[in-house]
Amino acid sequence: MELQLQYFLLLAAFLFCIGIYGLITSRNAIRVLMSIELMLNAVNLNLMAFSNYLDPENIKGQVFTVFVITVAAAEAAVGLAIVLAIYRNRDTVDMEQFNLLKW
Amino acid sequence: MDVVTLASQLNAGTIIPEGIVTLTLLVVLVGDLIAGRKSASWLPYVAIVGLLGAIAALFVQWNGTSDTIAFLGAFNGDALSIVFRGIVVLSTIITVLVSISYVRQSGTSLSEFLSILLAATIGGMFLCGASELVTVFIALETLSIASYLMTGYTKGDVRSNEAALKYLLIGAASSAVFLYGASLLYGLAGGETQLDRIGIALSQIETPAIAPVVALVFVICGIAFKLSAAPFHQWTPDVYEGSPTPVVAFLSVGSKAAGFAFAVRMLVTAFGSLTEQWHFIFAALAVLSMILGNAVALAQTSMKRLLAYSSIAQAGFVLIGLIAGTESGYASVIFYLFAYLFMNLGGFACVILFSLRTGTDRISDYAGLYQKDPLLTLTLSICLLSLGGIPPFVGFFGKIYLFWAGWQAELYGLVLLGLITSVISIYYYIRVVKMMVVKEPHEMSETVKNYPEVSWNLPGMRPLQVGIVLALVATSLVGILANPPIDLAKASVQRSPILQASISPAKEVAVSRFAPVQSSEFRVQN
Amino acid sequence: MLTPLLVIPLIGAIAIVLYPDAKKSWVVATVFCLLSFGWSLYLLSQFDLSFGGLQFVEFHQWVEPLGLNYSFGVDGLSLPLLVLNSLLSAIAIHTNRKDLERSRFHDSLILLVNAGIAGALIAQNLLLFVIFYELELIPFYLMIAIWGGKNRGYASTKFLLYTAVSGLLVIAGFLGTTFLSGSPSFEIADLQVQNLDSVPKLLLLTALLLGFGIKTPLVPLHTWMPDTYVEASPATAILLGGILAKLGTYGLLRFGLQLFPDTWELIAPVLAVVGTVSVIYGAMNAIAQQDIKRMVAYSSIGHMGYILVAAAAGTELSVQGAIAQMLAHGMILALLFFLVGVVEKTTGTRDRSVLNGLMNPIRGLPLTSGLLILAGMASAGIPGLVGFTAEFVVFQGSFATFPIPTLICIISSGLTAVYFVILINRTCFGKLDNASAYYDRLEVNDRWPALVLTAIVLFLGIQPNWLLRWMEPTTTSLAIELHRPAIARVAAIDTIHQP
Known about the structure:
B: two-stranded antiparallel ribbon, 23 helices, 2 strands, C: mainly alpha
């Protein structure tokens, strides 16, 4: 049986939803960052699937994926640096504790 | 294939302004490496010279070639992007001017701040012209990541940390959502990443499919985050309150202008066939932003939070021009952003100066300031009144042009709401003015009583003074001399093929009825 | 020709700020005020009395894409108000000057206001008018908030909100008028209001009426006014009541009656009723007041009602009366506020049940009381004073169109006499309290503005032609505009009956 495009898209959508769920419910800042990574990976999956099925010659989607992975790494690096700075100042990474600025 | 032919094939000349800024960034970095601490005295001026060079390059391009598409369609250096890039660079220049003394006082390294700021500028400039999904994404992230870094720039300050973390998390999430929309677009267009081809592909989907609308909604999430339009505004007040004020100044103008350029290009080219849908969504965003921004601003006690909500509201006003979708609509967006550049940066420059001298930004601490610092009081009053749309300052002309364009495009409800909410906005802007100007000597706040002697000779103060005076003069006079900037804005719309294609013929007729040519004929007959 | 009216006060406002001696700022302010007053008199002398259209027209393209032009012109409606504007600014600068704090700021705000009002009166472009109309907002707000009385914070905020809403309605009305009618620009001369259907016309006129009605103020929209007038310092109150409120009635005539003549005729009965209600309401409230400043403030509502009735009637004579009433009321109200200010400053109270016997020639305020009696008489419309002229023309002009409202107004003008008699009786006559009342002698500065105003009030009362001659041609053309449909109908009937 040949795998259809829809399966990949559904999987990606599922992953994306998990990411959003994690984003909303996590209390730990690291966990939130991980959820965002999950969302980005859902995007990557989408791009790869589209690239394979619709654009096999130019594989723009795969190039896009490489860029997304790179940028995600940069974003994670910056994010972790900020979390580290917060941890040094506050001794916690609990989102509930970050209430100096009222929402 | 040598470099020259490659460059000419890619039409690399269109990104000379960005090249100049990149070069400046490198000079700042290397200069700091070689000269060390001492370099802080001259590096800002290097940055300003480099940015002015970029403006000059933009100016040359404005009068230059007609071939604007570069890098095989990845970047479009048309008139629209030139104007927006100009606004971004101008906002960076003023930010550099006002940030020197602030960064110095915060005890952090100036050259690093400048490098990150220049990196953000490069991202913003690329975003103004990016016309391909990967380029859009990279430019957006360059701008965003540099902004996160700047937000958390004062490492020791807990509030700055917290603001940076919030900004990063919300920003990264919204860019992930945007990316998801972009990946859907890529698939819907059958493997195209260039915006214009996506637009063509989407217009060929015959039945009213749900998928393009889903992609549109996801993309708009990313855009609205950059514009800080409600309900994607939650980060704004916190980030504005917590981060270093010069950073906020840049975020509120440079980053927002880039966001608008991105919005126009993305929506007009890629979603041309879904115009009705995105107009509807943006109308909702505009209504929410105007109401929420202006209403919540009433209750603020911190000057920076007040300006944050005001910037949300201002985004709502600007969206009216975008929704109008006519020539004067787009032109009014450009003109308003140009006006907003001066009045908002002027306001922030004053807030920076006040917090430098007193270390606070509570509104009640401004009480009675007129006695101690008339220049600051005058500039802040004029900038705030201009933001509120009081004539004869530039904000009035900007707002009336937006409403005028909106009314022409028959957006009566939005324009009326804009008028009503701008009355509300006058109230909270004037509250600050009243605090500064009206308070009796005995009601003066403790902070102002201990206000230090006004002295411009401290290091880094002269540029701040230049920035303040520049904003003051521009805010008071650009309105009265509004013709050239409005003409420029109109010309940039007329010379941008993507906008011309989107301005539908039916609306063209409606516009030509109001053409000023008729007016002069009429007058001659009189 | 008209630009100096704008430029002189603006230069003055800057010159005052730059002038080194803050205590002497009034000298600079007076010089510039007199310059602009002189210029307006010069314009008066150059004004062509036989021509009803715009004169001294100036036109420059300004912000072309917006349809905003630098376009000025005056006619018999605006020119007398311009003179009044400069006159009252000069008076306001000399009102209650002693121990004035932050006098430089005060005087430059007055000059700014002067420039703004002059600009609004001469603007012949809707957007230009809006710019000047909104320009007054901030200076007045600051003047009330800085130099006002005890409740100034409340009063200034109320003023700000009402006036901002008024500006909003006017802008909305103007945008609608221009775009719905498909006019090429905001020039008044270019407007093609005739393209509009009657429903949009009615809506637009209503927006404008509400906008200008707030400024005037007319009765349901007046609630900002007593608070503001009472809390404002005498100088501010003179400008507010004397000339700023006239921008409201000016707007009604210029943009209501002139732009929408047929719709105006349609709703004229409603306006007449509103005007009559204002008259009665103002008079009744004035009678009930203990505070003499508040009494004067309510009297102003009543007098603005006459203007509305006359404007609604829309005959040649009644419009002339409306303009004359604007001028007369401007001067009389300024005089009253000035005198009440003097009384308050010297006695320290405005309560009519506390005040007594100010006529006392030795220890009282004989001159002020005398002038107060005269001003009250003028306001009540006693013949020989300017108030009589204006009211007489108003009543004579409106009676033919709206007999019953006019009759009620005439009766109410009797009520005006009632509350001024109460005011004068309580404050000026009676026995001065021996124990506490040893009032300071008045300074020269507290006398001559009142004397100047009184002289003008007397002179124009005796020589009404000097008041009325300026507007005759303009009102004729306005009234023709208004009754053109009726005339056309009559002509049509005539042609039918001429087989």
